[in-house]
Amino acid sequence: MKREVKLLLVFLLLVPLGLLGGGAWGEWAEGELREMLGFVPYGVKKLSGLWKAPVSDYSLKFLGELPSYLLSAIVGAGLIILIFVLIERLRK
Fold this sequence. Notes:
Elements: H1 2-14, H2 17-20, H3 30-37, H4 42-47, H5 65-91
């Protein structure tokens, strides 16, 4: 398990590299898709209003962009770890 934790920490430290690329890959808005593809796929149009993120753009105004992005990564990774730990305990 220690090896996995170290690997996860390395990935968390790499999270800010996503900001250098201009945003998270695959999380494009309708306008961005229209600009990139020339159209908005039907499924995106149909389902775009289904979910509103609790923390839009991973940004908490009082923290700033980079700390918010890192905090989102840490919370997300923590939730995933918690889920797997719970699954493992239920299997025993």
